[in-house]
Amino acid sequence: MARRSRRARPLGAGDPQLPLANGRSAGVPVLGPAPRLYQQAAVALTEMIGSGRLAPGDRLSETGVAALLDVSRTPARMALRSLAEDGLLANTPRGYVVCKASRRAARSQPEALRTPVQARPSWRSIYRQVEVEIRARIAFGSWRINEVDLARYYGVSRTVARDVLGRLEQCGIVAKNARAHWYAPALTPARVRELYELRALLEPAALAKAAQRVDMSTLCAMLNELDEAAADPVALGGERMESLERSLHLDLLRLCDSQPLFNAVYAPQALLAGYRFFVLWPPNVRNAEPVLAEHRDIVSRLVDADVAGAAAAMRLHLEHSSERASARLTLAARTELSEEISYLQRMA
Predict the structure, then answer these.
(1) DSSP one-letter string for 42-61
(2) What is the CATH number of domain 124-186+335-346?
(3) Structural domain boundaries in the chain
(4) CA separation, residue 77 to residues 91, 101, 108, 191 (Å)
(5) CA distances from 108 to 86, 104, 268, 335 (A)
(6) CB atoms < 10 A from the CB of 279, how many?
């Protein structure tokens, strides 16, 4: 496959993750002096517009901003509305469009929010895309990874490609075989059960800690999104389902106020993310399985200040999800993917 074009394009899924203003990747609004997530997202976009990284005429969407900043669609939507009110964006029938940058709008932000978006090491320029592409395929089998082709595919040096693979190895997404060749091991039903078992131990504990910091407006917004989705589950796309998953299992759990715990929570989710998108959310599944009802039960218990009940509901939800995932994974292994990527070769 020819190397990807480097022409300008709208923001969307696949763009590398950018840090928010507080130096962390993303969270949800919290009580106290910490800026709300949509404010952090708005400031990150404002800095990008002011620096020229987002130019006049560039189009922004809720989905694109959510993927770019690694947040759910609710704070992305609020950030876009905020910037439109400030005159940095125009709301058009085709989405938001970047207007001429306003220095006054940028200066009007609170001092605590005016932290510039930092330049990232070169490996970050492709890490997110490589991670997504590999994760999306391990539900369908194991894959050999050609380091030279990876560097050529993205137009980077082999040092950058090797650094990306080394970091993916630390996350357990890729490994080296006896000949020191890179490969991405498949998700098997047994491995999926092990990952969900780990999640069922960690996520209820993180939820109990996060419950002490989440505010009621965030929980109510989550309930509204779940109710809207439940009203017509057949019309939901996999992208929307993934956004709902992120809201509960990542954005909310970031508030646990323990980076080691959140890192442990994120690791098994990272391995399962590609499986969820390609296997867990086909239309018949979205309509038949009680995923939305299980999510709503957890959030409703938090609204009622029943933290122990919410943690127990989270554990039960993950146990049920493990059973559903294991039962369906064998079907994915027999699926042929239409899109080929030059640096990935399916192993027999």
Answers:
(1) HHHHHHHHHHTSS-TT-EE-
(2) 1.10.10.10
(3) 1-120, 124-186+335-346, 189-332
(4) 12, 19, 21, 36
(5) 10, 6, 40, 53
(6) 22
Q: What is the CATH number of domain 189-332?
A: 1.20.120.530
Beta strands per DSSP E along 104-255: 143-145, 175-176, 182-184
In this predicted structure, the answer to whether residue 129 has a pLDDT above a threshold of 50 is yes
Q: Which residues contact 12 (CB under 8 A, 6 or more apart)?
A: 61, 63, 64, 67, 68
Exposed/middle/buried for 159, CB within 10 Å: 0-12, 13-18, 19+?
exposed
Q: What is the pLDDT of residues 153-180, one digit of tens each?
A: 888 888 889 999 999 998 888 999 999 9
User: Checking DSSP bridges between strand 95-98 and strand 59-60, what pairing results, if any?
Assistant: antiparallel
* pTM over the 0.90 mark: no
The domain made up of 1-120 has a fold known as Arc Repressor Mutant, subunit A (1.10.10)
